[in-house]
C-alpha cells in the first residue's frame, strides 16, 4: 500500500532511502552470490551429464530477466515498498525450493528453486532505480552508488553464509546454505519496510509516451546498450575465468581468490563512482568503464599466469562498476515520472536477458574456442557501445 511521503529539505529523504536500500541490497544481493558460488558444484552432484551442471546458475539469470516486467507491474500497482516485501517472500520460497532439491537430490527441483530466486533478484535489481526516485538530478548518481555499495557487503555475506552453513546438513551437503539464503531474504523484509517511497505515477492513457517512442531516444539506446554490454560481458568473462584457470593448471583456490577480488572490484568503487559522475559526467564515466572492460580482455590475451587472470578480473570488475552505474544514471534522464516504471522494466529486461544469454553461452565458447576466444569476443560489443555513447551526446534531448 502506498504511503504519503512528506517533502524534506534537499535530499534528506533520498539519502535515507538510499541507505535503507543499501542495507536491503546487502541481504538481497547475497541471493545470487550464494547461487553463483554453489550452483555449479551442487548441479554437478545432482546431474549425470556435467554439461548441464551450470544450468542452475544460468536459470538464476533467466529468472531475473523474466521477472523484471512482472515486478514492475506489481510495484506500479502496490508501490515500491509493498513490491519489495513480496519480492523478499518470493526469495525465501525460492531458497526453500532449492534446499529441497538438494535434500531430495532432485536436479529439476533445484533448478526451479534457482529460477524462483532469480525472480526475487528482479526486485533487488530495481533498488538502484528506487534510490533515484526521490533524489535530485545532482544526487541521483550518488544515490545509485550508495545502493551498489550494499553489493560489496553482499559479496561478503553470501560467501560467509556458505562457509558457516555448508556442513550443517552432512546428509545433504549445502542444503543449509540455501536455507540460510532464505533467512537473509526474510531479514530483508525488516529493512525494506523502512522505505519511504513516493506514490508511483500510474501510466494512464495519454499520461505518458508510448514505450516505443521512449526507446527510440538516442540516450536510451546508448544507455541500455552500455548497460547490457557492461553487465553481459562481465558475466560472460567471469563465468569462463575460473574454468579457464583450472584448465591452465591453476588451483581451485587460485580461481576462487580471483573471483573474490573480482567481486570486491565490482562494488568497491561505488564509494566514489557517484562523485566521479558528478565531476566528469555520466557519459564519460560510462565510457571509462567500457574501456576498462576492453583492457581486461587485453590483459587476458597477454598471459595465462595467475597474475594475468587476477588483474583481468579486477579490471573487469571496475569496468562493470563504472559502465553499469554510469549507464543506469544515463537512463534516468530518458523518462518522465509517470513513465519510469515501464522504462526501468524495459531496461532491466534487455540487460538481464543479455546476461542470461551470456551465462548460457560462456562455457560452450570456452570449451570450443578456449580462453583467447572469450577475450577476443569482448572487443566488438565494447566498440559498439562506445560509439553509441559518443553519438547520443550530439543528439537533441527528448525531455526537459
From TrEMBL:
Alphabetically ordered keywords of this record: Membrane, Transmembrane, Transmembrane helix
Highest taxon, organism lineage: Bacteria
Record flagged with keyword Transcription: no
Alphabetized SUPFAM superfamilies for the sequence: MFS general substrate transporter
Protein name: MFS transporter
Lineage, opening ranks: Bacteria, Pseudomonadati, Pseudomonadota, Alphaproteobacteria, Hyphomicrobiales
Matches recorded under Pfam families: MFS_1
Record field: transmembrane: 20-47, 53-75, 82-100, 106-123, 143-162, 174-195, 220-247, 259-278, 285-304, 310-335, 347-367, 373-391
Source organism: Bosea thiooxidans
Location of the Major facilitator superfamily (MFS) profile domain: 218-400
Amino acid at each position: 500500500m502506498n504511503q504519503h511521503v512528506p517533502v524534506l529539505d534537499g535530499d534528506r529523504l533520498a539519502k535515507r532511502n538510499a541507505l535503507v536500500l543499501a542495507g536491503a541490497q546487502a541481504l538481497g544481493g547475497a541471493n545470487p552470490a550464494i547461487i553463483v558460488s554453489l550452483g555449479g558444484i551442487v548441479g554437478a552432484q545432482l546431474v549425470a551429464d556435467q554439461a548441464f551442471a551450470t544450468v542452475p546458475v544460468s536459470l538464476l539469470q533467466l529468472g531475473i530477466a523474466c521477472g523484471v516486467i512482472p515486478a514492475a507491474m506489481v510495484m506500479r500497482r502496490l508501490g515500491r515498498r509493498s513490491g519489495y516485501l513480496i519480492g523478499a517472500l518470493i526469495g525465501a520460497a525460492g531458497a526453500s525450493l532449492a534446499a529441497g532439491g538438494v535434500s531430495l537430490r532432485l536436479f529439476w527441483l533445484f533448478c526451479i528453486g534457482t529460477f524462483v530466486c532469480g525472480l526475487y533478484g528482479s526486485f533487488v535489481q530495481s533498488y538502484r532505480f528506487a534510490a533515484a526516485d526521490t533524489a535530485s538530478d545532482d544526487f541521483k548518481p550518488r544515490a545509485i552508488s550508495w545502493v551498489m555499495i550494499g553489493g560489496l557487503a553482499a559479496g561478503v555475506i553470501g560467501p560467509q553464509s556458505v562457509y558457516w552453513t555448508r556442513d550443517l546438513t552432512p546428509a545433504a551437503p549445502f542444503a543449509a546454505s540455501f536455507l540460510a539464503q532464505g533467512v537473509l531474504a526474510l531479514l530483508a523484509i525488516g529493512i525494506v519496510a523502512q522505505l519511504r517511497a513516493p506514490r508511483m505515477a500510474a501510466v494512464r492513457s495519454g499520461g505518458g509516451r508510448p514505450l516505443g517512442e521512449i526507446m527510440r531516444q538516442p540516450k536510451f539506446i546508448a544507455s541500455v546498450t552500455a548497460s547490457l554490454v557492461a553487465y553481459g560481458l562481465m558475466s560472460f568473462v567471469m563465468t569462463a575465468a575460473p574454468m579457464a584457470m583450472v584448465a591452465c593448471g591453476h588451483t581451485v583456490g587460485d580461481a576462487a581468490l580471483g573471483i573474490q577480488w573480482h567481486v570486491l572490484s565490482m562494488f568497491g568503487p561505488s564509494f566514489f563512482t557517484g562523485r566521479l559522475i558528478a565531476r566528469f559526467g555520466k557519459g564519460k564515466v560510462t565510457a571509462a568503464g567500457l574501456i576498462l572492460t576492453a583492457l581486461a580482455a587485453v590483459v587476458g590475451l597477454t598471459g595465462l599466469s595467475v597474475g594475468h587472470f587476477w588483474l583481468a578480473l579486477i579490471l573487469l570488475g571496475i569496468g562493470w562498476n563504472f559502465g553499469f552505474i554510469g549507464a543506469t544514471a544515463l537512463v534516468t534522464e530518458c523518462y518522465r515520472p509517470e513513465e519510469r516504471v515501464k522504462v526501468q522494466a524495459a531496461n532491466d529486461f534487455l540487460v538481464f536477458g543479455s546476461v542470461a544469454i551470456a551465462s548460457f553461452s560462456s562455457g560452450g565458447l570456452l570449451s570450443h574456442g578456449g580462453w583467447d576466444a572469450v577475450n577476443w569476443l569482448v572487443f566488438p560489443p565494447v566498440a559498439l557501445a562506445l560509439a553509441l555513447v559518443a553519438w547520443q551526446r550530439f543528439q537533441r534531448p527528448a525531455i526537459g
